[in-house]
Write a structure and sequence with these properties.
By secondary structure, this protein is mainly beta. The protein has 4 helices and 15 strands. The protein has helices at residues 3-12, 14-17, 67-70, 129-135, and strands spanning 28-35, 62-65, 79-84, 96-104, 124-128, 143-150, 159-165, 168-174, 182-189, 195-196, 198-201, 204-207, 216-222, 227-234, 243-245. A 6-stranded mixed barrel has the order 1-5-2-4-3-6. Strands 11-12-8-7-15 form a 5-stranded antiparallel sheet, with no helix packed on it. A 4-stranded antiparallel sheet has the order 10-9-13-14, covered by helices on one side. Belongs to the expansin family. Expansin A subfamily.
Length: 250
Amino acid sequence: MNRSMTFVVLLTSFVSVANLTSIDSAWDDAHATFYGDISGGETMQGACGYGDLFKEGYGLETAALSTALFNNGQTCGACFEILCVNSQWCKPKAGSIRITATNFCPPNYAEPIQYHWCNPPNKHFDLSMKMFTSIAEYRGGIVPVKFRRVMCQKSGGVRFEIKGNPYFIMVLVYNVGGAGDVNSVAIKGDNSNWIFMQRNWGQIWHTGVRLVGQKISFVIRTSDGRSMTFYNVAPESWTFGQTFEGSSNL
């Protein structure tokens, strides 16, 4: 077995040994606020590396996470179900919402914990206005919530946006189903071995290996241990700034 085959076998073997039901079924306590206006312009881009959330399929069903939940960007792409509870501002019979983590709610250490909801160890969701007002009254401002991790449901295949330059390739991985939060990425040119990429920030990954002019393949792994291989996603004529979609999703 050659090195390339060995790599794929080792990485995909995590599927058989991982707890594939690791998404939390138990509800936890947090609080929620909102940022931006109803159009959601202020929620675009952010600390996970995503860009236009409408074009990327996330829309306004998003949130910025506090330090306790953000986990230095490793939670980017994860999905949560959120329910407003124990507040006069909760909308009756509103039910729950589902959001994807796309941004970071930074702490403010100049203020005490009780006055800045995103300070550690607080668990907090700063929602888009549309999502907040789906479960609570606008004038409430901040409400207690229950939340849990859920599987992400995405349309189409996993997408890879290639950025950077010939000497420093960066790839934004998005529209990931299943657990949603990618914690390992490998890349391969048709003339190279598999190369583990490094997390640059959020869901942007990088390598210094030159792969221009080669067909590009990827292996991604999410936090629940599931992995998927995407062969020859990008043709040898790919250029920086292009996005390529895999034929399947997790």
